[in-house]
């Protein structure tokens, strides 16, 4: 669709396009803070996350109850609990296989 545009309208359209290009090329300006605002930002205490708080509480509890040595003794590795559970599962399965073999041996063939 084409239409006839006067010289004044053409200038206005070109000016709008230039303004849009200039706005796009400008970097967003950051809001300047005064000295007081900057000091309040620096003075704020960082918030502690739930995980940090739990870790701090657990470490404090271990030191109060002198549990560090005991935990290291019974852990026996990084994944102590998981290793124990895996061992129990394996032994249970082996026991089941032995019982199954015994039952199959006592069955009468058809």
UniProtKB/TrEMBL annotation:
UniProt xrefs under Pfam families: BCNT
Domain of life from the UniProt record: Eukaryota
InterPro entries reported in the protein's UniProt record: BCNT-C, Swc5/CFDP1/2
Disordered: region residues: 1-31
Biased composition (Basic and acidic residues): 1-26
Stretches assigned to the BCNT-C domain: 29-109
Protein name per the record: Craniofacial development protein 1
Gene source species: Haemonchus placei
């Amino acid at each position: 669709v084409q239409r006839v545009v006067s010289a004044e309208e053409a200038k206005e359209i070109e000016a709008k396009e230039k303004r849009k290009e200039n706005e796009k090329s400008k970097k967003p300006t950051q809001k300047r803070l005064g000295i007081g605002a900057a000091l309040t930002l620096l003075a704020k205490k960082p918030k502690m996350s739930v995980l940090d708080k739990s870790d701090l509480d657990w470490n404090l509890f271990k030191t109060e109850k002198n549990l560090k040595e005991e935990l290291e003794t019974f852990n026996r590795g990084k994944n102590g609990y998981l290793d124990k559970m895996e061992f129990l599962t394996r032994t249970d399965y082996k026991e089941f296989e032995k019982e199954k073999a015994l039952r199959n041996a006592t069955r009468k063939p058809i």
